[in-house]
């Protein structure tokens, strides 16, 4: 049973500082080494993928807004592991790692960032807007809170048809202050919908801290207004996240009701690639660095004798190759043809649809 | 007179207005500690403190509405919306409340507030972050909509907006923030509701606003080298709309092209074109043409985005076509 009164995992309460890590996270003893190494590999893949993304951005191969999952790797992998293949996922714009974690090939994710027609959204979406029907990633959304009502609607469709899929809806801490958050939680609870709302609490939305933006800074408690169980978990611990998320996902499936999960995480860099994060104190920046989930998991696995030097090298090499391959694929993929510009305005073709370029006259024969 | 950026002109004006009037306060996401997403409010939190420079939660409907309520009691809030796309979250408060309160209650309380927000496009921000939807607000009686294109106009119009007793949607543009221009040292307060002929010419009238006013000026300069004399009209105010200035110009030149960053069908240009045909019908030597964004949700991929956006080249093409329709193509 999820404990709604007492947070599990990291016990950070209203203050900005994080209190001591891990009260009693899951131990490695009950885990298969192979599975643990796979989590480690996935986390490292996201880390290297995002570093490569930042590099490609500074080389102007990627444009627009670009938000990275650096520092959130344990949370991302833990959450994606908790989902079944048939479960649906909605995310915000910080979603490269989720796309990979949901089973989309890194090549197609990188190609989307490069705006190529081989990308997940055919180059139409970019960093913030990835979608893949097969992987059941139902979109990354750039308007804060935009994904929440949609996730509720997807859960309505599942419930309406008597399906057994669960919808996961990811968001940032800052998103819990927008009206759509409250409207969505209320509707999901009223209608008993199988959706798990997940708040990634990286303690800032851009430069604003949770304490400065949320009157109830213990965000998992915000479900209580809707009699929705909320759970807080240490987002630095991939196993803790997996367990907490799997528990809620399976309960949502079995009991047909919504839950709220808060994962305490860290954003290692600025809000987006171009944000130098000058507003952060040296102490805060240090804290994020000290809480590197990839390094922590690596140390933990090494200490337990699961990750040998040889394996570490092997994994590092294969991840490096995979990321390089993704970037090569993106680089060598075609740009979308300008002739496709009007292909996706409407799903049902109608007469008189405008397919006019900026210099075209309204009446062609003019 | 000093040469400063559009950004600096806005910041200096906010600062001087805050010094002038204790009732002026700033609200918005990331305007304080972060110093503004586009750094318009840099240094203001330090200078004026949290009471007057308020970082808000991500809750556009809530804080825009709160600004309206505060204005009803005589404060003069200046709200920053990070981009005009996010104004859609607050559109009910803006249209159903800010624009209605003065009339609906028989003129008993006015709503003296400003909503500053940039439009944009052309930066690969994708479908939800590249929209120019100032039309939504320009359509609404009770709102005033300003769209300055130079640092001097930005300063004079922001000052006027803050001192005005009605809700003003103040349209900025991501592409203009770094542009530079001369700004007078003394305080100029613009008259709201006036367009300006920013360059005189005899062959054709070219009309734009915001970023497009800057683009049209460049086009006119280039065409002058080819011997084409373009008169440029900068709308500056989308509501009220200065139809006189537009129509008088077209009466002189006999033809017009409108350049706009929004979509064509029902766009701002449609209203301009309708006004021209009604006010200058007998003077027109060619159909009024519009250059606008291709009517699609804006794609991320650069080649598609570039093709979809109006540009100096597409405006130039349409000017040539219009002049050839008039039968006096030059160059
Ligand atoms: C409605 C709306 N308002 C403002 C923005 C601009 N914006 C983009 S991300 C962001 C911060 C979101 O913070 P949080 O929800 O904590 O997510 P994080 O970026 O930390 O993952 C803001 C204000 C937006 N995209 N949509």
Automatic annotation (TrEMBL), chain A:
Residue stretches making up the Dehydrogenase E1 component domain = 42-338
Q: What class of enzyme is it?
A: oxidoreductase
Q: Which reaction does it catalyse?
A: N(6)-[(R)-lipoyl]-L-lysyl-[protein] + pyruvate + H(+) = N(6)-[(R)-S(8)-acetyldihydrolipoyl]-L-lysyl-[protein] + CO2
Which GO terms fall under biological process for this protein?
A: pyruvate decarboxylation to acetyl-CoA
InterPro entries named among the record's database cross-references: DH_E1, PDH_E1_Alpha_Subunit, Pyrv_DH_E1_asu_subgrp-y, THDP-binding
What EC number(s) would the UniProt record show? 1.2.4.1
Instruction: State the residue spans of region: Disordered.
Output: 1-28
Q: What Gene Ontology molecular function terms does this protein carry?
A: magnesium ion binding; pyruvate dehydrogenase (acetyl-transferring) activity
Q: How does it assemble?
A: Heterodimer of an alpha and a beta chain.
Q: What does this protein do?
A: The pyruvate dehydrogenase complex catalyzes the overall conversion of pyruvate to acetyl-CoA and CO(2).
Q: What is this protein called?
A: Pyruvate dehydrogenase E1 component subunit alpha
Q: Which organism is it from?
A: Actinorugispora endophytica
UniProtKB/TrEMBL annotation, chain B:
User: Is Oxidoreductase set as a keyword in this record?
Assistant: yes
| Domain of life from the UniProt record | Bacteria
Which InterPro entries does this chain map to? THDP-binding (IPR029061), Transketo_C/PFOR_II (IPR009014), Transketolase-like_Pyr-bd (IPR005475), Transketolase_C (IPR033248)
Which keywords does this Swiss-Prot/TrEMBL entry list?
Oxidoreductase, Pyruvate, Thiamine pyrophosphate
- Keyword GTP-binding assigned to the entry: answer is no
Domain (Transketolase-like pyrimidine-binding) spans 4-179
This protein's name? Pyruvate dehydrogenase E1 component beta subunit
